[in-house]
Amino acid sequence: IAGSSIGAIMGAGMASGMTGAEIHGYARSILGSRAEMAARMWRSRPGTIAEAMQGGIRVGQFNVERILKAFLPDAIPATFEELKIPLKVTATDYFGHKLAVFA
């Protein structure tokens, strides 16, 4: 399984053993509820000013890793090695001007 951007997130679900129907149901259960969306966004915010400044000043207040942790299903493990099916995620090495592949 391979993907980039949202395709990498969907690929992680599939590589963890979720079916398309399970991914769809999970996404609808969260994205279909404004209250659930707001609660998860609230939980993913920095708890302190120190946390907000950790890693330097960012354009946004939110940390992508915290957002993913708040929104991804528990079925998706934290590492590539724990996935049931191999996954490759593609991205751009902006400064190196080349493709980056994570597996």
Can you describe this structure?
The chain has 103 residues and is an alpha+beta fold. It has one domain. Helices cover 44% and strands 13% of the residues. The longest helix is centred in the N-terminal third of the chain and has 12 residues. The mean pLDDT is 88.
User: Mind telling me the C-alpha Rg?
Assistant: 15 Å
Largest sheet, strands/sense/barrel? 3 strands, mixed
Q: What is the percent of helical residues? A: 40-55%
User: What proportion strand?
Assistant: 5-15%
Instruction: State the low-pLDDT regions, or none.
Output: none
Question: What's the tally of helices?
Answer: 5
- The tally of beta strands, per DSSP, is 3
Distance between the termini: 10 Å
Tags for this entry?
single chain; alpha+beta; three-stranded mixed sheet; 13% strand; globular
Q: What's a concise summary of this model?
A:
The chain is α+β, with helices and mostly antiparallel strands and 103 residues long. The protein has one domain. The protein contains five helices and three strands; from the N terminus they run βαααααββ.
Strand and helix map with partners:
Blueprint: E1 2-3, H1 6-15, H2 20-31, H3 34-43, H4 49-53, H5 64-71, E2 88-93, E3 98-102
Parallel strand pairs: 1-2
Antiparallel strand pairs: 2-3
